[in-house]
Structure formats: structure tokens, C-alpha cells
Design goal:
By secondary structure, the protein is of the alpha/beta class. It has a single domain, classed as 3-Layer(aba) Sandwich (Rossmann fold). The protein is built from eleven helices and nine strands. A seven-stranded mixed sheet has the order 3-2-1-4-5-9-6, sandwiched between helices. It has a two-stranded antiparallel ribbon with strand order 7-8. Strand 2, helix 4 and strand 3 form a beta-alpha-beta unit. The structure holds S-adenosylmethionine.
Amino acid sequence: MSGEASPWRPEQYEKFRDERSAPFFDLLALVQACPGGRVVDLGCGTGELTRELHAKTQSAETVGIDSSETMLAKSDPFAGNGLRFERADIEAFAPERPFDVVFSNAALQWVNGHEELLQQVSGYVADDGQLAVQVPANDDHPSHVIAHQLAAEEPFRSALGGYVRDWPVRSPEWYAALLDRLGYRDQHVRLQVYGHHLESAEGVIEWVKGTLLTDYEKRMSPELWQEYLRQYREALLPRLIHDSRVTIHDSRFTIHDSNGPARPYFYAFKRILMWGRR
Ligand SMILES: C[S@@+](CC[C@H](N)C(=O)[O-])C[C@H]1O[C@@H](n2cnc3c(N)ncnc32)[C@H](O)[C@@H]1O
């Protein structure tokens, strides 16, 4: 994806800061320290979490790379003491020397062709090095399904030139087999469901506006984007409310009326965490 055209907005992304950082810390827990070593964080965002990675690994040098200028613009306060940030695209990134840890949290889902990608990335994992990746696996949730369905309908289809986002994320067992083929002798791969209590079903829209929908937003005029959001909301909310009605089994989850928002809304978000050591 192009950083220039990317509408990544740190304020929107960070609305769910605690929920989004939980998988980062779960992934970080799998990583072993490499005192004095070299670490890279692919798709580091603002760099705030890269600082945690740098501290945990005790590396001499950690570089966070990201293609978004707006995200990197926030990274200055976190740089220093061996931690730096560079604007680069993950697909084009070709370091001269290998890294002891190659880390990526919630970014590789933006790059297609995961077999080739993980092969490429593994090319710069050192002989005894580690690879640690977390990707969302929520493409079958209505918040994702409806986003793509709508993109395929007019007037959006013509405006997007027929573009519908590909979903490159595969199954946990597929990644486990790939890590094995790529020579990781130790590995840990798991699917984890993160349950988020959002204030209401509307919160799901705010959530995906900060991530998935940015890919459609950057390809539309501001007017068409507003129309897309209107139709997205109209299609998604009744579906979420319906689904939460059938799964209610706890008095904490109540629905005010049949057309009103589910409050709170339980957003079950699946993610794949993988770690391997050569
Ligand atoms: C969901 S954010 C995750 C940020 C950070 N890793 C975190 O855990 O908070 C995804 C990041 O990946 C970056 N990104 C997406 N595609 C990229 C690419 N091809 N090359 C570099 N960065 C990319 C985006 O700019 C964004 O900052």
C-alpha cells in the first residue's frame, strides 16, 4: 500500500488503544531477549509499541519501518538509545544484514501472498534468529464481510475500479507448516479470540474505520466515502444487533429495543500469533 495515499490516522487507530495493544503484548511474551542484537519491527505504526519491543529484547539496535508518513510522524518521542524509525515498504524492504528478531504486529495482513512474503522476510532472520508475527483472522465477521460486499456494489464498484480487498491471511495450521518448511526448528502458532466490550455496536464501525476501511477510504472521494459509511452502517448494525440477540445469555448484555444499538457490544476478534526460532 502506498504511504502517501494512505489515510492511516493515529487518532482513529488509537481510539481502541488498550484492545489493540493486548495482542502485541501476547506476541511480545513469545519473544526471547537477544542482548546486544538487532531487531526490526515491520509496520511499526507510531512506534510506541516498538519501544516495548526494544526494551524486552535488550537489543543494541532496533529499527521500526512503516510506509505511513502520518503514523511515523508520531514516532520521534520514542526514538533514541538504539531505537530508530525509517519510512519503508515491507515488500521492498531488503536489509543488508540479518536481524536476531523480525517482529510484526497487525501489519502483514496488508501485504498479499503470505507464502512468498514469509519466505522473503525469513531471508533476513539470522541463523539463530526469531520471527514473531501477529495477524488478524476476522475476515468472516460481518464487519469485514459487509465492507467487501458493499465495495462490490454500485456506485462504489465503479469508483473503486472493481477493487475489492484481497484477504491474504491463512489458517494457523498453514502458518505452522510454512514455518516448519522455512526451517524454524522451534515454533508456537495459535489462534486467539480477543473479546472486546465496546460501548455499543456502533463501536465496531469506529474500530474498522481505523483499520480495514482505510483501504476503501483512500480510493474514494470524500463525498462517496460518506455515502459508503452510511450504507455500511445501515447494513451492518441490524446484523450485529441480530447476532447479539441470539447469543445473549448473560443479563449484562441487554438490547434497549429491537432497532436500537446493542449495549455493550461484545466484539469477538480472532487473531493468529506465530513465533519461530531457527
Ligand atoms: C494496524 S497498524 C499496526 C501498527 C503497530 N504495529 C501496532 O501494533 O500498533 C498497521 C501498520 O502497518 C503499516 N503498513 C501497512 N502496509 C504496509 C507496508 N506494505 N509497508 C510498511 N508498512 C505498512 C501501516 O502504515 C500501519 O502503520
